[in-house]
Amino acid sequence: MADKLPSLPRRRQGRELVSALGPHVARYAPRLLVLGLAIGVAVALTVPGLSFRQPTSLPQERATLGLATRGLGAVQTQIMERQEANEAVEAAAPSTSSAPRGGGVLDDDEDFLVKVPALHTVVPKRPRTTILTYTVEEGDNVSTIAERFDIDTDTVVWANEKLEEDPDYLVVGQKLLILPIVGVLHTVKEGDTIEAIAQKYKAEPQAIIDYEFNHLQEAGVLKVGQQVIVPNGQKPYQLRYVYTDKGMIAVNAPQGSGRFIWPTSGYITNRYAPDHLGIDIGAPVGTPVYAADAGVVTSVGPMGTYGLAVIIDHGKGFTTVYAHLSMYYPTVGTPVRKGQAIGKIGMTGKTTGPHLHFEIRYGGGAVNPARYLP
To answer: What SS3 state is found at 6?
Structure first.
């Protein structure tokens, strides 16, 4: 064939060469394309993030003919498109886990299954910045309500005056204000400043200014009647009283356990009797005196023949009296814990020696402490 070509013009020689090689090219073209495809796939498999599988259900003849008709260039173009798609997905979600079968991207001819990393969209919970009104339901208590709204019990109590008087006062259908965060709700009064409010509630002035609910564009600018949330503030304890036929009673005193402990160490010098409404515990001057149960201090200071004395309201109708002290620590309205030091033994008032006169009263009347002490 080659010895016939030199006598022909150059263009005609090219056409004759193509015509002569045509049958051979057509015969081997599918094999050459399959070989080229194999090389392209081998190269593509070295690119991280790509994974291919050959469907076992597809007839081999269809795969061979399909690849032959598309051509090597088209296959390489599809591989590049799949690579770009996977890179875009990886950039959006850095997860490296492959999607399960059926969760990938299948091309039109079902020749390849490209596994795309699974996307998990996490929508962050936006903090609440508004005050809600909650309606009490059957079975609610202050603790469960606080837990439901991710705040503490003090925040629920402080925002609702009725609960401040009695935290157990809950009625089905009752409306409660629920703050968005732990803290105190303050209504601005004449003369209030950010610094004064922060000091009152033991908080930081900047925290009040920065909190979104307060809308304080300019530091220190407040309007009378404006409601301000003090983040992480602590409301000062305020004792509330009601007047009864037996005198003034604190209605929001911390509830004691009803189980008392000995208020000091020493020895009994005088027991309970109709003309002696408590017990006397002898001990040296300066011996510590402790609260016999949790409660709120309702009276301190000189009390006639009792000398320096402290009275604590424990709720549930109980109060205790600690007399003849040389000194005392708490002030009226101070909540105390069981076992908290409240003063020291002395000889003030009418006494013949250093001792603590201790009384337990129930419903306003003295009872024998021996019935309640361990």
So the answer is: coil
Do 197 and 278 lie in one domain? The reply is no
**Which backbone phi and psi does 124 adopt, to 5 degrees?**
-65, 140
Q: Answer whether 297's CB lies under 8 Å from 332's CB.
A: yes
Intervals of the chain under pLDDT 70: 1-34, 38, 41-126, 165, 168, 217-220, 238-255, 257
Q: How far apart are CA 318 and CA 296, in angstroms?
A: 11
Q: Are residues 217 and 291 in the same domain?
A: no
Distance between CA 292 and CA 337 in Å, rounded?
9
- Structural domain boundaries enclosing 251: 242-371
Q: How many CB atoms lie within 10 A of CB 355?
A: 26
> Tell me, what DSSP letter sits at residue 258?
S
Same domain for 195 and 162? Answer: no
> Is 12 a member of any domain?
no
Calculate ∠ Cα 241-245-250, nearest 5°. 20
Assigned token pair, 320: 């205790």
Tokens of 348: 């003030």
Strand-pair partners of 244 = 247
Of the candidates 154, 305, 321, 356, the residue with the CA atom closest to the CA atom of residue 235: 154
| Largest distance between two CA atoms of the chain | 151
Which positions ≥6 away from 183 have C-beta within 8 Å?
Answer: 155, 201, 203, 229, 230, 231, 232, 233
Q: Please write the tens of the pLDDT for every residue from 160-202.
A: 988 876 776 788 999 999 999 999 999 999 989 999 999 999 9
Report the SS3 class of residue 157: helix
Using H for helix, E for strand and C for coil, what is the string for 216-236? CCCCCCCCCCCEEEEECCCCC
Q: How far apart are CA 224 and CA 246, in angstroms?
A: 40
- CA 343, CA 218: separation in Å to the nearest integer? 47
